[in-house]
Amino acid sequence: MIAPNPQTKLMDYFHNTYVQANGLTRMSERAYRYAIKQFHEFLGEFCTIDINTLERVPGFSAWLCAVAGVTPKTAHDYRKAVVAVLSHANGLEEAEQKRQEEIASQPPPDSGTMLLSHWVASYGRSHNLRQGCHQLMYSVSHLQRFANKPLTLDDLSDDLLNGWITARHAQGMTPKTVHSQRGHILTLWREADRRRLVKAGPRYVQPVKVPKPRPKAYTLEELATLLQTFERMEDQFQLPVDLENTHFMQVHKRLVLRAFLLVAYESGLRPCDLRALRSADVTSDRIVISQLKTSEPKEFCLSSEAMRAVQATKPEQRALVFPFGKMQLCRAWKSACNMADLPGTPRWVRRSGATAVMQMTGDPNAVANFLGHTSPQNQVHYVDPRQIKSVHPPPIIKPQPSRWSKIRGLFGKGGAQ
Asked: Contact, 127 vs 119, CB < 8 A?
């Protein structure tokens, strides 16, 4: 393989080499491209794929959170995307893969008498861990405190971990903390088993159920407040006209966000489906779309108010109805929520529609049909329980009594006297 020129622009290398080598989807390609654009803004210049560029990555995540206004998780993903492209350009991925293969091919030691604390340090060096190594050591220290002795790799057993997990629950630790510490010990144990440092790996360690947070949705009053807030937004979106993002048009944010909210609330579509909605899919009275997640077609009618809101954005002049990126939508939505002093994300609108259907019908099947799900059990992750005051389940049809049972009821259990 011919090494690329270190003076090649990062964006050019991404389009010409990285996309084809990794087979990125169209949505992943857009996310990577946006991350590289943000990295250029962070540096203040168009950078190259030179290996020295990797030394300028630290601080990118903090800049994204402070300046771009993204969440820490999104900032981590964008930083990871930039590092992945730079590592691929400089051959670091192949070097890391060869190093892992060499570590796996090393002969095992004579026994598993290595102290668990020493194994944490070895594991951290082999995986280039910094902050994560301290978390592993913290979990190991609690396990050794429970065992009341320094532990070796041979001391690890299912009974020891199950007793420790039970004790952590009894101490009042949250399920999330216990689940995290359990994962730390299992990670160390499985890696030691992969390198054949222990006689046997974990067989059955009791799982820890972490309760999922209750879904939250907007109320009708909050949705009305958001619509009023959109009207006060003066700036505009720069939306691409074609799928290649070569030509753009200016559209007011208040028009686009209003149409997005109304369509999402009435259709129950995911934000990714709405951002992939083509202008050709919108007719005068209905929308037909194939869902990205399930590939199932979905057809629905919109109210006249929602259709007027969509037509106000002039969708006939571009390929997509809502052609903005995920972060572009989230930043605009966050700005509107700050103006209205409301929490939430664009996903809350989909849950608001599901909650309204549940309030009107009380039927989980209707909610599943609205969301495009095959199982009505998934509605518990979308319906806000705070807004459901009384849900009446569908009536249970009882079998009709036979003629003989009716006669016995007239004359009593003993029959005719």
From this structure: no
In a domain? residue 75: yes
Q: Which has more confidence, 126 or 369?
A: 369
- 237 in the same domain as 124: no
Element counts in the chain: helices (H) and strands (E): 18, 4
**Alpha-carbon span 226 to 310, nearest angstrom:** 17
Q: Could you tell me the CA-to-CA distances from 123 to 109, 116, 182 in Å, in that order?
A: 15, 10, 17
Q: Is 364 exposed, middle or buried (0-12, 13-18, 19+ CB in 10 A)?
A: buried
3-state secondary structure of 196: coil
On whether both 85 and 131 belong to a single domain, the answer is no
Q: Say if residues 231 and 254 touch (Cβ distance below 8 Å).
A: yes
On whether the CB atoms of residues 223 and 266 are closer than 8 A, the answer is no
Q: With the C-alpha atoms ordered 59, 61, 62, 68, is the resulting torsion angle positive or negative? A: positive
- The CA distance from 78 to 320, in Å, is 25
Q: Alpha-carbon distance 276 to 324, whole Å?
A: 9
Residue range 230-255, pLDDT digits in tens: 999 988 888 888 877 778 888 899 99
Q: Is the dihedral of CA 355, 357, 359, 363 positive or negative?
A: negative
Does the reported pTM lie above 0.85? no
User: Measured between alpha carbons, how far is 79 from 14 in angstroms, rounded to an integer?
Assistant: 15
Which 3 state secondary structure label does DSSP give 231? coil
Asked if 49 and 13 count as a contact pair (C-beta separation under 8 A), the reply is yes
Same domain, 244 and 151: no
